[in-house]
Amino acid sequence: MAEDGEGPGDPPASTDALWEALWALLPHTEEELGLELGAPVDPSAAGLLRQAAGLLYAGRLDACLQASEAVLDYAWEKLNTGPWQDVHKAWRQVYTFACLFKALCLCREPREAGATAAALHVCDLGLLMGAAVLGDILIQVAAVLQAHLPARKRPAPSLQQDPPDTKKPRGSLVPAVPPERAVPRLHRPALQHFRTHFLLPRRPVILEGVADHWPCMKKWSLQYIREVAGHRTVPVELGSRYTDEDWSQTLMTVDDFISKYVERETTDVGYLAQHQLFEQVPELKQDIGIPDYCCLGDGEEDEITVNAWFGPRGTVSPLHQDPQQNFLTQVMGRKYIRLYAPQDSEALYPHETHLLHNTSQVDVENPDLERFPKFAEAPFLSCILSPGEILFIPAKHWHYVRALDLSFSVSFWWS
Amino acid sequence: CALAPELRARQLHLGAEHALLLGADGQVFSWGGGRHGQLGHGTLEAEPQPRRLEALHGLTMVEAAAGGWHSVCLSETGDVYIWGWNESGQLALPTRRLAEKTAPGEGGGDGADTKGGASTEDGAPATFIAVQPFPALLDLPLGSEAIKASCGSRHTAVVTRAGELYTWGWGKYGQLGHGDGTSLDQPRRVKYFVDNQLHVKAVTCGPWNTYVYTVEKRKS
Q1: What is the CATH number of domain A179-414?
Q2: Where are this protein's RCC repeats (chain B) (predicted)?
Q3: Which residues share a beta bridge with B189?
Q4: Residues in A touching B172 (Cβ below 8 Å)
């Protein structure tokens, strides 16, 4: 039976640099893949995955693609069964392996137009929903694919500025921050001072002069983000706020997100929110630091969850609380933030459902005081967070966030 | 337990995370996980106990079926009620994933299955429904009466009194029987049985396939 693609045993019949680079990332032998998956992965699924691996190493790439697709679809159903935190890691690893094989097979020759971008998309799905295998091989595959995508043309310098959103907004869109309610600000406080006066008593504070020299502050622009991550697939939230009925999540490339939801003057809100973008795109990770004050916590540095929050003016995170300490760092644009203490939770009328019990029912900037009368008297602090500034949000502190400009924030969740 | 001791259970169907029970009195109960609206009580909350579908109060159901994350029941008058997850159009409601021509949405991450299915006839932007947490009444073409139903993990199949089979939902592995790998968010009659003069009597779906029982139509 004729072989239908390049394989390790074949004499180098082509000088396909992409294929060579991808193949070099794989273990030399099929056995080194480590596909001995136990429960709960059922033997038929594990068997089909091993079959796909065998086809890959035998160079039967069309057949491998077909088998990988089936494993991928099967594992996807498992990933969607039950609460996400209960999904067994083994299924996520199966999903990752299937993505790996599929991404490789998509790059087989003869290569269709868009194959490399499609393969990168598959890698991103594996990164978003799978679990790392072979030392997080999908990151390396993504890097190789990214390097083989056509480079962007740098536009003329005058076009490199960000779109008009950075101009002052019209009207009374910028909320007043009463001085007696302002979050206190400190310039590079000593670790112990921060610990004694803010961390232990759980008081919010804005730290200035800590992140303002991170490379991201100068480097990041829409153009730069497009260059580094434009082809990458990311989760985007659609809809004004996650408590709305018409709110949904979808996947799209960063290019599409910027074109459709950031650059365009649109009533449809799209928000790249709460996404570990820096795990997916390590190149961006080099532009940010980690606030030193995290070392005051109990956890290890690799346990800190770093999330990206990127969107147009007007994105809103309804009043809610998170279980961990948060250093919310502003990189692009400004955000209006209001904070309420956990002891005032009753006046914030949290939802009663399990799904939303950490979210208030009250619309902070337009509260229905007939339904939520106690809210009017609840004490709060507020601020406008600008680029270079870090807001310390103590664990369980309620916070409401609205972007006043096109905005990029980085949050650090630590314990 | 919320089930009355005098309840006579007729059918029990299991999805990936939920259970559907059809009683002799034509009432439907559901319980289990509800994050995709598959329980039909109007929320995304789980139900630890069997709970009657209030939305179907006053209607008599004669058939029920459960897919991976969706539910179907048929009334004694041949109407189809359907609820749950619509990510591949398995509820026969417009789904975003089939309307987009390029990269897929949150779906199976495959991008290789061809896109088919609905947009509104006048080209106006459709309202996409990802999750339907209440039963929705589905109109089959030509007002056909449904008598049997079965669901795969992400597709739906219905037999009509006239002996036709309609399928919709995820079709990547040919489970819809239309000769290709297209997914649909509208019911489509399976032409094969019409062309071969077969009267469809019953249908049963596996997760990714469909089994159909037919008898030959009498030649007149």
Answers
A1: 2.60.120.650
A2: 26-77, 78-162, 163-216
A3: B166
A4: 73
